[in-house]
Amino acid sequence: MDGTNTNYNTREALLKLFDERIATYALSDSPEVITGRREAIAEFARAGFPHTKLEKWRNTDLGRVLNNGFTFPLAPLAADVDLEEIFRCEVPGFDTYMVAQLNGWFIERGNKLAQASQGVVVCSMEEAFEKHADLIAVHYGKYTRVNNNSLSALNTALARDGVFIYVPDNVEVNEIVQIVNLVQSAYPVFVQPRNLVILGKNSSLRLVHCDDSVDDQVGFINSVSEVVLSENARLDHYKLQNKNDRSALINNVFFHLEAGANLSTNAISLNGGLIRNEVYVRLNGRGSHADILGVYLMDRDQHIDNQVFVDHAVPDCTSNELFKGILDDQASGVFNGHILVRKDAQRTNAYQNNKNILISDKAVIDSKPFLEIYADDVKCSHGATVGQLDSEAMFYLRSRGISADNARMLLMYAFAAEIVNKISIPKLKLRIDDLVKKRLRGELSICDQCVLHCNSREQKVSFEIDMSKI
Fold it and tell me: Residue 329, SS3?
């Protein structure tokens, strides 16, 4: 097989699955949805899985995960799972409305959102197709890229369930909604959750989306989420990724912003054998704004690939993009940022930056920030840096009696903290700060000699350092 036909067996199994099962178990009997499914599977059949001969995939090889004998669950497989045990949040004081997903399926846990009486809906995609067909008809599949994105096409063709969230006009959701997406199976599993989030005019939502592993089984998660912000809507969005080293997570998120909408999205990638985040942001109304942030901490043979496309489609919009990464051992990373300013999108302000620290001489990062501008009244900039820990800062810390290992961890922590400090939910910020410290130590246990003591420890350590000088 040549490069365009790698992972042929998995590809053929998915095409067969569509022909035999999925086409007859569609989410909806809507002719439009069925037509979209068939067009999407035709696109996937034509293109197959992405491969390293494609420019956007030349540094990310799916073959390291796809060459497994996958099962394709047509049910959540929850019979032998203690749902209350695995779907629980260990963040003290972090009260959320938790939405459970197991193997790509929505798990009904009987909990009710406090503002359901105001028309706020959180349910499965299956239920949404039955009870909210009007919203599905307007939004489902309208923002996803299918052409030239075969994995989005595959999800569009095969997705059967996921999470649906709707916030009506003029409603501010007080509870934090937390989606916990877990994969647990006795066999290698291939799952394709599909999510749709709709925010009405002048509404607001805080959404935390967690991808985690229950066991060390091989998994391939091909996720697609469409997120719509109507006029003056506000979304505070966090994507937390902590997968095992044998899994691949493909995360496609399509944000669509109308006039005056405000988006803040922050991706925190702590672990994962192979992670690819494709984020598409379309600023489609005047005065809309997007902050697109991310931090990734990779080691061993882990691989992270962040692809960010920001489309300034109309005048008077702003965007700010900052991604920071720390890579150790043989870890590898990719950052591809693309800002498009269309012809009539005057008075655009768009900023993009990617900063990386390589701890070992075997870690690699390929960074490619890119501006494509067709308007003349704009303020745009982009940049990328790749380096090692600052030797002068190391000397500054060592001269104050800090060991080499602790000085190294402090510098890495100070580097990552710029992104963590932008988390606006205090309890979540505290927990992520704690996890980043543990991750930088390469373990999840307390080291008595470490100056980065975690918040779960009763003993507090005061260590006065002017971080602005690091």
Answer: coil
Return the SS3 of 145.
coil
Structure tokens of 243? Answer: 């997968």
Q: How far apart are CA 239 and CA 195, in angstroms?
A: 13
Q: Which residue has the tokens 């002068």?
A: 392
Q: Where are the beta strands (DSSP E) in 232-327?
A: 234-242, 248-257, 262-271, 274-283, 289-298, 303-312, 318-327
Mean pLDDT of all residues in 282-301: 96
Take residue 46 and report the two structure tokens written for it: 């034509």
Note the residue count of the chain: 470
pTM for this structure?
A: 0.89
pLDDT tens for residues 232-286?
Answer: 999 999 999 988 888 899 999 999 999 999 999 999 999 889 999 999 999 999 9
Compute the distance between CA of residue 380 and CA of residue 319 in angstroms, rounded to an integer. 9
> For residue 34, is it left (φ>0), alpha (ψ between -120 and 50) or beta?
alpha
Contact status, residue 310 vs residue 342, Cβ threshold 8 Å:
no
Q: Are 71 and 188 in contact (CB under 8 A)?
A: yes
Of the pLDDT bands very low, low, confident and very high (cuts 50, 70, 90), residue 312 is: very high
